Amino acid sequence: MMLRELREQVCEGNLALPRHGLVAWTGGNLSALADSGDRIVIKPSGRLYTDMTPEDMVVVDLDGRIIEGIHGPSSDTSSHLGIYRGRDDVKSVVHTHSTYATAWAALGEEIPCCLTAISDEFGGPVPCGGYARIGGDAIGEEILRSIGRSPAILMKQHGVFTIGPGIQKALQAAVMVEDVARTMWAARLMGTPIPLPEEEIAANFDRYTHRYGTAQASEGVTGNV
Amino acid sequence: MMLRELREQVCEGNLALPRHGLVAWTGGNLSALADSGDRIVIKPSGRLYTDMTPEDMVVVDLDGRIIEGIHGPSSDTSSHLGIYRGRDDVKSVVHTHSTYATAWAALGEEIPCCLTAISDEFGGPVPCGGYARIGGDAIGEEILRSIGRSPAILMKQHGVFTIGPGIQKALQAAVMVEDVARTMWAARLMGTPIPLPEEEIAANFDRYTHRYGTAQASEGVTGNV
Amino acid sequence: MMLRELREQVCEGNLALPRHGLVAWTGGNLSALADSGDRIVIKPSGRLYTDMTPEDMVVVDLDGRIIEGIHGPSSDTSSHLGIYRGRDDVKSVVHTHSTYATAWAALGEEIPCCLTAISDEFGGPVPCGGYARIGGDAIGEEILRSIGRSPAILMKQHGVFTIGPGIQKALQAAVMVEDVARTMWAARLMGTPIPLPEEEIAANFDRYTHRYGTAQASEGVTGNV
Amino acid sequence: MMLRELREQVCEGNLALPRHGLVAWTGGNLSALADSGDRIVIKPSGRLYTDMTPEDMVVVDLDGRIIEGIHGPSSDTSSHLGIYRGRDDVKSVVHTHSTYATAWAALGEEIPCCLTAISDEFGGPVPCGGYARIGGDAIGEEILRSIGRSPAILMKQHGVFTIGPGIQKALQAAVMVEDVARTMWAARLMGTPIPLPEEEIAANFDRYTHRYGTAQASEGVTGNV
């Protein structure tokens, strides 16, 4: 894939963030790794989503040097780069301050795995990493240390980062972590939600990971044919 | 009605779910029973609502075998089938993880009948069924056991299922259960809502069921003409 | 004004309810009194807002007899009529189950007057009337007994009614009561909001009622010219 | 810049308020100072945002006398003027009753600086000024006394005012104060958020103020090139 095409996909991915209600004003950003593995395309710093075009996207190398771009790269670029350098399965990263995920992060708490949707998407609680200063290597390092097999991590007193093997999966994790964060927040305000048993978490994660979106999605088919 | 026409209606019904804010990403699904009684049409597994067309809908028989379809059926197909097999008054089923209904479900609590709107739509509290694993027969069985005369049921630590004699009524129940779940959640956070007396629940349910949407909807007419 | 024109305005007023997020599915209704004083135009019972047209509106006399209409009138028609019969300053009535106003109503509590916006719009707390059964005269009577000078009243375990000297003012009260109900709900969950002093309530209500929307809206002008 | 052009920008700025969900009905207002320094353009009093045009904007001098305008100026004009007279770095003022900011204001509490986004945008807690009566000089004076270096201030039992060196920055502060107010409200309902250490607040505010939106936005670039 040419960088031109990746710029278009990264721009489209960034525009999905306000459409899903995950960002305010110029906040949030999405990046993706080029097939060559030595370039990322990322949202520019401090630009409104309105009228954002592929030409506004910034290309940097893995040390953060600007390769192409009429704007500076996102102020979270170092954090994205740290993830790409440490996890070669990650091809896209999303960062937001989406409201309810960030509310859990404000308290430094993981989102407990009390719903089937959480076991499906995250394979357990959504972890919360410790506080790390924006702009340097600290955030990327803390994410690598704490994210485990989850595609999403809360960062204490900051916001949320999600990762994926492609843009769609990183976006999906950003949408779903906010969705379950809001539901669990609403539940927690009424009472004390109880985590699912480990064997249910494992069964849900396995089904969702291996059969969802396939011809064998429904047990009926598997069991009866 | 031809299956082609039912595919269109089921597709349109599924597209109503994001329009009413009841689902996130690929979550949720709606199905309907064909007039023949031996086929259902259901949303495909793991597909985004964007650009979903009638051709994407999947036709399965009551044992879950795919009859027509370019995708696999929803991973909740077995749960839908269990309801159709057990309740011959049901012609459509909706499943969502809508936020506030699922918050009550996270705690395993029914929604108490403290508002006229709840007595109108549900004839009493919205019941909450026990936890059951996704993908097999357990969810359908628990729904049949616990739903009673309500068109909606919460499923513990999972989400909500609604049923109806047609697509519109199943959709209505999905919209209304989220609406009353949110209102009752908001009330419960401020204090302790008190259930309506049984005779008021009965009077409201009777009025809504027998006169709503008719020429005698208003008592004025009944009483004065 | 001809009834044809009033049908159009009442239809447009009803369509404003979903646009402002005040209603779900077929819930809620708006009516207006004809200039003749012996007819009201009201939303039909149990019809979706989608594709609602002026022809769907129902004309009834003050005893609730259908004068014109292809559908039955709203099941809340008797409540609207009771208000028109008892308050000749009222030319339009709105009824909704908007979420946060109804949350206060679920508890049977008035919304305390702790914000300038509440003193401006309602001249004091938004009152909450006692529970009354839908469909007969009881609701209208309770509203007349309890609404005072406020353009909005919560009805216990039911929802909200608003009144105005015209459609726009009744709609405004429906929008504003939900807005302040949500803000006060959010405040109340964090602490104990304190009512404004009586003299501040009086000063705000006077300014808003007599100068807002006029050339003397700003004190600067009044004081300095 | 001609006043005609400023009318267009002020109209557009006011129309951004409902688009960002910050206002209800006719509430809220935005003004800007003319380059000449002796005129402001402000939203008219009591007009709906629907169909608002540049011609509806009102031009007043710094004493509040109407210079041009077919409507009266906003009833908050005196408060805007007080800010412009006291702070010559301010070229635009926004006032709203946005829900979550106003919930904090209802309690007379500042929004504590527990998130990086708050240190970025506001350089510390968002302050809350004391109660002051609408329409005279009291609100402007209290804002000048209490706002400090923050671009936003809550006003007790009233709402929020934001300021900026231009319309976009005042709007940004209005959007961001509601965003962080909602997130902190959600966090506070679950637990006790802890403020960031002073050195983290200082580091974030410095980075955001001096590098955000520039070619050096990312530390990677600064550190490695």
Automatic annotation (TrEMBL), chains A, B, C, D:
It catalyses: L-ribulose 5-phosphate = D-xylulose 5-phosphate. The lineage of its organism: Bacteria, Bacillati, Actinomycetota, Actinomycetes, Mycobacteriales. This is L-ribulose-5-phosphate 4-epimerase. Its EC number is 5.1.3.4. Residues 8-185 form the Class II aldolase/adducin N-terminal domain. The keyword Metal-binding applies. The keyword Membrane does not apply. Its cofactor is Zn(2+). SMART domains: Aldolase_II. Keywords: Metal-binding, Zinc. Belongs to the aldolase class II family. AraD/FucA subfamily. It comes from Corynebacterium pygosceleis.
